[in-house]
Write a structure and sequence with these properties.
The protein is α/β, with parallel strands linked by helices and about 250 residues long. Helix content is about 25%, strand content about 20%. The protein contains 6 helices and 11 strands. It is globular, with a radius of gyration of 20 Å. Pfam families: ADH_N, ADH_zinc_N.
């Protein structure tokens, strides 16, 4: 298969297109034919060698986000069939680990101490194919394109973790979303609105704030020309907000 490979850490010049062996799957695994791949900051820091906890071995195929269709399923796989539209998940786990508490069973795979991540410690999505455990693949609804799915998976999951899993944002509460111009901030605005919250968004440019309004922000603050604390208190009658998403 064709893939983008790095043989050493460095700048963009270390990214090389090369023919490599298509991954072979084992029991419980799925082979995905990728039709789109995202470019995430994880990919940049991995290429530079700036993630100390990710033991990258060379040659390495980066890429933490992608979407495609199932090309092959291993023995024991029951949730997927060839041709299914799917997305591989960044955090690689098997649903259970040797630790107590077992964060995998609690649904907190992202903080599992048996750490493994797609595109960091295993080959990623800068390729025609990628393999993943059945546990680390999700179905992609037809209402979402491969491109949109491949470029939003990590940011949306992060925003959900912050707003819903950790902050338990509820209907009627007020959320302040800072740095709304970024991927996580943009996703957080939409998730907060879906949760029924009032959303105040902050950013440092008019264009980013206009985007925040289009995504559902009720109020916006330009922190470069307005005092953030003063404006938040004014907008909430001195009460402040229930949740801050940074």
């Amino acid at each position: 298969m064709k893939a983008i490979v790095i043989d050493k850490f460095g700048g963009p010049e270390v990214l090389l297109q090369r023919e490599v062996a298509t991954p072979k799957i084992g029991p419980g695994e799925v082979l995905i034919r990728l039709l789109a791949a995202g470019v995430n900051r994880f990919d940049v820091t991995t290429r530079r060698g700036e993630i100390p906890y990710a033991a990258v071995s060379f040659p390495h195929v980066p890429g933490v986000e992608g979407a495609g269709t199932v090309a092959e399923v291993g023995s024991g796989v029951t949730a997927f069939q060839i041709g299914d539209r799917v997305v591989p998940v960044l955090t690689i786990s098997r649903g259970v680990c040797r630790h107590n508490p077992c964060y995998c069973q609690l649904g907190w795979d992202n903080i599992c101490r048996d750490f493994d991540k797609l595109g960091l410690t295993s080959w990623g999505t800068y390729a025609e194919y990628v393999k993943a455990s059945e546990h680390n693949v999700v179905h992609l609804p037809r209402s979402l394109s491969f491109t949109d799915a491949a470029t939003s998976m990590v940011a949306t999951a992060t925003a959900w973790e912050l707003a819903i899993s950790r902050a338990h944002l509820r209907q009627g509460e007020t959320a302040l979303v800072n740095a709304v111009g970024g991927a996580v901030g943009s996703a957080a605005v939409q998730i907060a609105r879906l949760a029924g919250a009032r959303v105040i968004a902050s950013a440092g440019s008019h264009n980013k704030l206009e985007l925040a309004r289009q995504l559902g922000a009720d109020e916006v603050i330009n922190y470069k020309c307005q005092d953030l604390e003063t404006e938040v208190l004014n907008l909430t009658d001195g009460r402040g907000v229930d949740v801050v998403i940074e």
